[in-house]
Amino acid sequence: MLLFAFANKYGILIVSMAKNDEEFEGLIIKRYKNRRLYNTETKSYVSYEDLAKIVRDGTDIKVIDTNGEDVTKTVLIQVILEEEKNDKTVLPTDFLFQVLRSNDSSMQDFFKNHLSASFAAYLKTKEEFDNRFRSVLEMAFSAPQTMEKLIPGAEVMREVFTGTKKEKEDKEE
After folding, report:
1. Residues 6+ apart with CB under 8 A from 112
2. Rounded-to-integer distance, Cα 108 and Cα 103, Å
3. How many CB atoms lie within 10 A of CB 87?
4. Partners of 44 in beta bridges
């Protein structure tokens, strides 16, 4: 099983799994014995901060070490640790205590199945809410112009209520 990461448009890191290497179509990062990370696409070394940006920009990554072993999960955890060091809180402390205190297989099942599905549902709901809220705002801003087009005399009524015509006359004098 292959682990890779990507970020959605909100910059939230999402971890996903593919069944084998042939399904992976993202960026390969090599981790050398000195722990330096090498971007095989740009042919340059990258930092954990660079990796966070790459992932947030929506690029899937796979990190392999010199033995060919997939170390993506380990590197992603290190990226999260670096984010925490830079005062970008990713995981609440209480949650981390709970994870460490529960070391049974049901917790592993929870993380593999339920947490991922719950987070995906949350992101989908948030995106739908944002889209609906945006459309309501757009309707609210376009409503006065629409009324003026559909209802004869609506412009006069707007002038009466807002006093725009009176202001225009005052400026002319």
Report:
1. none
2. 8
3. 6
4. 39
